[in-house]
């Protein structure tokens, strides 16, 4: 049995940062609900984690480009008697063609996966978190959210939304014991570039720009527990982010919180 009474829901859990989060949280005694499209990969990971750490680990094969998926995930959690205390919104992808040349159904799926599903899952876990007075939400943004806008692709805009949305939620929810962090990694060793077909280009980047997913996960988890609304993992990424943002993130967060028109007076 688990020694930790909290349960973490992790999307995109079959590989990369998501799988690293699963292993990291399992090692700390968290029970898990793992979600991804590849059921076989989830089954293999769940078997490994149950055997190694003695935790409860449930899986659900779901495609978050489906508008019904967030509700189905939470319905499944309820059926299994799981209360979600930790949400890792990790599932994501990046388009490979210019906006104007991409069919709308592909763009729609991208927005559903990384904007709507991320937001809906956060919204659906909050009632339970507020009732229990505890919650941790990590939303995978990107250092691209801190970069100058790039042409054609939606990725930077989507990650900017996640970056700002996470800070807004953190401002609202911290008084209820709920911390929300936008985790903004740079280039990370994972299957992401293989799936996106950008491995050749990625291999030409300097090694100093790359991080291992385990390091990203560890720093992100530390940040959310410390109540930090933004986490840019890695020294190189921190330097890059500082050079791209004229006003430091912590000052932007302070100003946004101070001049929030909806806060209680």
UniProtKB/TrEMBL annotation:
The keyword Oxidoreductase appears for this protein: yes
InterPro entries: KR_dom, NAD(P)-bd_dom_sf, SDR_fam
A GO molecular function held by the record: oxidoreductase activity
Domain Ketoreductase: 6-161
Keywords: Oxidoreductase
SUPFAM superfamilies, A to Z: NAD(P)-binding Rossmann-fold domains
Domain of life: Bacteria
One matching Pfam family: adh_short
Family: Belongs to the short-chain dehydrogenases/reductases (SDR) family.
Name the UniProt record assigns to this protein: SDR family NAD(P)-dependent oxidoreductase
Protein species of origin: Aquirhabdus parva
Taxon lineage: Bacteria, Pseudomonadati, Pseudomonadota, Gammaproteobacteria, Moraxellales
């Amino acid at each position: 049995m688990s020694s930790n009474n909290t349960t973490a829901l992790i999307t995109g859990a079959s590989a990369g940062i998501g799988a690293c989060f699963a292993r990291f949280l399992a090692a700390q005694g968290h029970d898990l609900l793992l979600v991804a499209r590849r059921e076989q990969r989830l089954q293999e990971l769940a078997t490994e984690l149950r055997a190694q750490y003695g935790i409860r680990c449930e899986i659900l094969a779901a495609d978050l480009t489906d508008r019904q998926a967030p509700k189905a995930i939470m319905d499944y959690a309820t059926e299994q008697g799981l209360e979600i205390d930790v949400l890792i919104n990790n599932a994501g992808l990046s388009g490979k063609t210019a906006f104007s040349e991409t069919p709308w159904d592909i763009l729609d799926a991208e927005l559903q996966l990384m904007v709507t599903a991320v937001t809906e899952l956060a919204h659906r876990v909050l009632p339970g978190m507020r009732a229990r007075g505890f919650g941790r939400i990590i939303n995978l943004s990107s250092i691209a959210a801190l970069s100058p806008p790039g042409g054609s692709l939606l990725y930077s805009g989507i990650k900017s939304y996640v970056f700002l949305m996470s800070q807004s939620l953190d401002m609202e929810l911290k008084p209820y014991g709920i911390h929300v962090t936008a985790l903004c990694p740079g280039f990370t060793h994972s299957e992401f570039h293989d799936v996106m077909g950008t491995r050749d280009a990625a291999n030409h980047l300097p090694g100093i720009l790359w991080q291992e997913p385990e390091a990203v996960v560890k720093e992100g988890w530390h940040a959310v527990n410390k109540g930090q609304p933004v986490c840019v993992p890695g020294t190189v990424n921190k330097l890059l982010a500082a050079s791209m943002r004229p006003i430091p993130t912590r000052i932007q967060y302070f100003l946004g919180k101070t001049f929030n028109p909806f806060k209680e007076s």
